[in-house]
């Protein structure tokens, strides 16, 4: 009598474990799906794919590094953002000299948030003989998702 | 800064997350099985009787490991719903859901910046007396045309009585793109 009951309890327990595990996976998938609808791979409780990881990495450094360099664009007097597609990850930099051409990540992205009031930087003019593409005062910023 | 609490069935609040601030006082959201109350400083999520009953039934039947799994699942749900509510309440969110704005602009963010760039008017800003271009239809934002993707847009009308949903796919139609390439190959230089 007892052994039969224990068998039933074990069966029910096994069923519950599977049910809860399935529910957890289903909810994670649903949330992941929502984040993909929002187009941003870094948002939501998704699985940590390379794309998701890259987006979070970019967000981390966007918060801690400026989007601009130390030069202003001659036509505007300010560093000027070049809007690039949001799935861009790298930019090419060209410069004089052996092995001076580099590729660097594009961290920053336009956000639909109010501006945080960052201003007042002192920027330099493009040199008469520019030696690097970042001296022209145009810096890439990714478009919003 | 406010703290997020979830009340368990024993009625003792358990802190599950700390999120960034929200200054608008008093909002009340009722979602399926959960009530989110925000008094400006803290968001309290109260499980309704329905959820309590379900939880109780589950907990009667299952052992400790499953309890942990269940609570984790619930916590994930709660955090997700609360963050959605908070975004809606702040008036802006990652998606374009601030339906009252005629035109949502985008700005560079980050604490290390010494200048702020607006995405529009692009490519460069203009003096105030020149005027401004408003793009009032979100699917026609120029930046949406920069890569292949799909997007969904929502807007409420009649004071929230109706919801209009638009699904847009941005892509290059293959036949037309191929024809255009061929035409460009044979056309006279200009």
Question: What does this protein structure show overall?
Answer:
The complex is a heterodimer of chains A (145) and B (190). Chain A is of the alpha+beta class. In chain A, 35% of the residues lie in helices and 12% in strands. Chain A has two helices and four strands, in the order H-H-E-E-E-E. In chain A, strand 2 and strand 3 form a beta hairpin. Chain A starts with a helix and ends with a strand. About 3% of the residues of chain A have low confidence. Chain B is of the alpha+beta class. Chain B has three helices and seven strands; from the N terminus they run E-E-E-E-E-H-H-E-E-H. In chain B, the strands form two sheets. Chain B has a five-stranded mixed β-sheet with strand order 2-1-5-4-3. The N terminus of chain B is likely disordered. Classes of the chains: A alpha+beta (145), B alpha+beta (190).
Task: Say how many strands of chain A there are.
Answer: 4
Classification by helices and strands of chain A = alpha+beta
Strand order of the largest sheet of chain A: 1-4
Rg of chain B, Cα atoms, Å: 24 Å
Low-confidence stretches of chain A: 33-37
Count of runs of 4 or more consecutive helical residues of chain B: 3
Strand percentage of chain B lies at 15-25%
Distance between the termini of chain A: 63 Å
């Amino acid at each position: 009598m007892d052994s039969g009951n224990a068998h039933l309890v074990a069966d029910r327990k096994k069923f519950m474990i599977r049910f809860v595990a399935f529910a957890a996976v289903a909810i994670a998938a649903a949330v992941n799906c929502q984040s993909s609808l929002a187009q941003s791979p870094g948002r939501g409780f998704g699985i940590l794919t390379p794309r998701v990881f890259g987006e979070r990495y970019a967000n981390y450094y966007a918060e801690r590094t400026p989007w601009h360099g130390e030069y202003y664009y001659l036509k505007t007097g300010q560093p000027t953002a070049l809007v690039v597609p949001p799935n861009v990850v790298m930019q090419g930099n060209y410069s004089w000299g052996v092995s001076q051409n580099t590729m660097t990540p594009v961290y920053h992205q336009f956000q639909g948030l109010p501006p945080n009031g960052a201003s007042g930087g002192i920027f330099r003019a493009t040199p008469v003989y520019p030696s690097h593409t970042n001296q022209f005062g145009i810096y890439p910023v990714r478009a919003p998702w | 800064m406010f703290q997020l609490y979830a009340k368990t069935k024993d009625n003792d609040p358990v802190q599950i997350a700390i999120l960034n601030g929200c200054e608008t006082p008093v909002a009340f959201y009722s979602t399926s099985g959960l009530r989110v109350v925000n008094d400006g400083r803290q968001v309290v999520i109260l499980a309704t009787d329905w959820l309590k009953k379900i939880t109780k039934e589950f907990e009667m039947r299952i052992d400790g490991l499953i309890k942990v799994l269940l609570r984790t699942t619930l916590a994930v749900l709660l955090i997700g719903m609360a963050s959605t509510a908070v975004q809606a309440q702040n008036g802006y969110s990652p998606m374009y859901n601030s339906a009252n704005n005629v035109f949502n602009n985008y700005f560079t963010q980050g604490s290390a910046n010494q200048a702020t760039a607006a995405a529009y008017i692009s490519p460069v800003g203009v003096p105030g007396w020149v005027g401004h271009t408003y793009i009032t239809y979100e699917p026609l934002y120029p930046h949406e045309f920069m890569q292949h993707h799909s997007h969904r847009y929502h807007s409420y009308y009649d004071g929230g009585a109706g919801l209009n949903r638009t699904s847009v796919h941005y892509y290059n139609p293959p036949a037309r793109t191929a024809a255009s390439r061929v035409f460009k190959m044979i056309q006279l230089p200009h």
